[in-house]
Amino acid sequence: MRTSAIRVISALSAAPWGAAETLWAETAQRLMARGCRVAASVRHWPQRPKPVAQLASLGVEIEERSDDGPGALVTAPGFDLTVLQQPDMFAATPWMNACRTSGQPYVTLTHYGALHEWPPGETGLALRAGFMGARANYFVSNASIALAARQSALNAVPRAVRVRTPYKVPHAGQLRWPAPDTPLRLACIGRLDLEDKGQDTLLHVLARPHWRARNVTLSLIGDGPHRALLQMMVNELALENIVTLTGPVRDIQGVWAHSHALVLASRAEGLPAVIVEAMLCGRPCVVSDVAGNGELLEEGVTGFIARTPGDDDMDDALERLWDARMKLEGMGAAAAAAARAAVPPDPASVFADMLLAACP
User: Fold this and answer.
1) pLDDT for 239-267, tens place per residue?
2) CATH assignment of the domain containing 111
3) Sheet harboring 81-86: ordered strands across?
């Protein structure tokens, strides 16, 4: 039986690597293990990202293209399917057009979207044509599918499929509940980018008098362009005894071994893996109702959903968490069960099956 040849074009250009790259990278490894030919086109950086180097060492053919051109891989012959990975809603539109006009079968994979970010000029028309010409359009949340339809002037995105992304904790990873005599320990895990992640909202909520009077702490876990600005906010708001910027953390289970709940005040998202990870570890979540943040949660059962990422709405959601603090262990157990029912043990293998099925 002939094996398939699949290429991935990553449209990521703002950074050498990001969380949205994990799904295609792990799927490439699963496809290689099945005997497929796999190639990937990524933007060239002075220092090759470690995940890209790892893929190359496993036999994935890597094209490192310059930032002023689409690269040659997208139209190279000999491939059955092209996967167009875009970290936001319309980053891959030039490659969609290249595949569509050259008759190359392709699928799209979209991770993130924001209602306030619209495709400029004719990009919206290219996005519409790109989605319509794809053999499948994969999204990480139902909300992302709806947003894609809206931003490409479609009643419904054709051949839209929701996929799950990899996570960094075991599928059966529920942890023991932290000691009851500790403060209510909240953790916010994500890129320190205020435009998308909204950590400033959490700081201004915790600076309110009723929160200052409570035994609660917040860890901001991650790194990003606004780390220094966030530290200044912590200092200006006199939150040094409440809020800690920890930097990046590899041991996600270690975070949840001593934290009680995840809090996200996101302004733009897809469906963050950190929600899945917290739930699998048995921790409830407090999230803004943005993109897919609330799609795995049930209000008051596995977490709390703020109507908006604004200060007052996040305050209200955190107040509901505080009022339910004696019930949080049971909510965490319910969250773990809900997550195990919603996400597969190996999302990359499931996505590999989808790609092979999409091949002509």
Assistant:
1) 999 999 999 999 999 999 999 999 999 99
2) 3.40.50.2000
3) 61-65, 37-43, 5-10, 81-86, 106-110, 136-139, 160-162
